[in-house]
């Protein structure tokens, strides 16, 4: 089945060779507190240690390196709410290319300033990602820039899949891998890598309860639009695109399950990561821990939890740790 999908195991292995030396091979450590809770060994993949603070650097780097020199010279462009823009700006600068990142006025200034610091041309457009994407489309059409989308692209998915190779290389006996799920770039890539080597290993996608576009699309059997709502796991928001060509099919065919988490459960995951594991992670990076704490994961054998990112506003993080964060339509935990 894997060989018929848009991104193969060999594509991911080729990506690993391509990005070697340009991204960090992140560590994996055992969590004794979560292992005691789960009744099986639990290991944390510390991907939030990545150079730009999230897994996105893998896919962005592979996509930039896969371009022909003439394409790189034209410049790359993407719409972003933060992590992908930061990763693409870094990857483009490393290869001597210019990145243009289009963002809405809703993107926090700390994320905008970090992307500017990396040398990108930042365009602030409108009040939504749709409006930012319209500017991307115009720049591609009128100025010849090359679009590197945040998830629905074979080279991006293959790059994210290198994380799955590292997991199985470090822990070949892994029985379950818990992966944050948004547009599906990370989940599709990790699942293709893990199942390509270890077909019996389960890969479970985790996302927030409200505004989960991939989960709604999988349930409907086709890409659908959902209402975006505020969430502690803001990086998991947004749609998957009605013309999705890569990640929908891969998530449909490779994920064993998708589990939804409430805002209170995500907040508990953030707090546990900080208090028990001494890790600062954003809400999207805490969903695996949250699922274990909530008793929503069970099974035999070692479990791997991907901590996918740390690019959180620290004032928000402090409010969550102190139990004072405003949760989306819920009482504080």
UniProtKB/TrEMBL annotation:
Species this chain originates from: Rhizobium changzhiense
Protein's name in the database: Hydroxyectoine utilization dehydratase EutB
Superkingdom: Bacteria
Xref: NCBIfam families: ectoine_eutB, PRK07476.1
UniProt KW Lyase keyword: yes
PANTHER family: L-THREONINE DEHYDRATASE CATABOLIC TDCB, THREONINE DEHYDRATASE, MITOCHONDRIAL-RELATED
Cofactor names: pyridoxal 5'-phosphate
Domain annotation Tryptophan synthase beta chain-like PALP: ranges: 23-309
Keywords: Lyase, Pyridoxal phosphate
């Amino acid at each position: 089945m894997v060989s018929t999908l848009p991104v193969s195991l060999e594509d991911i292995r080729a990506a690993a060779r391509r990005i070697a030396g340009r991204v960090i091979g992140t560590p994996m450590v055992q969590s004794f507190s979560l292992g005691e809770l789960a009744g099986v060994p639990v290991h944390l993949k510390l991907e939030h240690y990545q150079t730009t603070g999230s897994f996105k650097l893998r896919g962005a780097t592979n996509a930039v390196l896969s371009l022909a020199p003439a394409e790189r010279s034209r410049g790359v462009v993407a719409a972003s709410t933060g992590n992908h823009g930061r990763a693409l700006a870094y990857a483009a600068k490393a290869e001597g290319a210019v990145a243009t990142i289009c963002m809405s006025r809703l993107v926090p200034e700390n994320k905008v300033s970090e992307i500017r610091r990396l040398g990108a041309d930042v365009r602030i457009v409108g009040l939504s990602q749709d409006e930012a994407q319209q500017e991307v489309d115009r720049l591609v059409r009128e100025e010849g820039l090359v679009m590197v989308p945040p998830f629905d692209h074979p080279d991006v998915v293959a790059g994210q899949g290198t994380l799955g190779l590292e997991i199985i290389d470090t822990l070949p006996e892994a029985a379950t891998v818990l992966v944050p799920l948004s547009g599906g770039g990370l989940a599709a890539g990790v699942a293709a890598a893990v199942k390509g080597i270890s077909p019996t290993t389960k890969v479970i996608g985790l996302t927030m309860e409200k505004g989960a576009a991939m989960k709604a699309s999988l349930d409907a059997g086709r890409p659908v639009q959902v209402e975006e709502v505020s969430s502690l796991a803001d990086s998991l928001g947004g749609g998957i695109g009605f013309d999705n060509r890569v990640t929908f099919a891969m998530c449909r065919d490779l994920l064993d399950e998708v589990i939804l988490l409430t805002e209170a459960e995500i907040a508990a995951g953030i707090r546990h990561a900080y208090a028990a594991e001494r890790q600062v992670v954003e809400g999207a990076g805490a969903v695996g821990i949250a699922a274990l704490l909530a008793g929503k994961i069970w099974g035999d054998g070692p479990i791997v939890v991907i901590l996918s990112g740390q690019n959180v506003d620290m004032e928000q993080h402090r409010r969550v740790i102190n139990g004072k964060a405003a949760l989306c339509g819920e009482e504080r935990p």
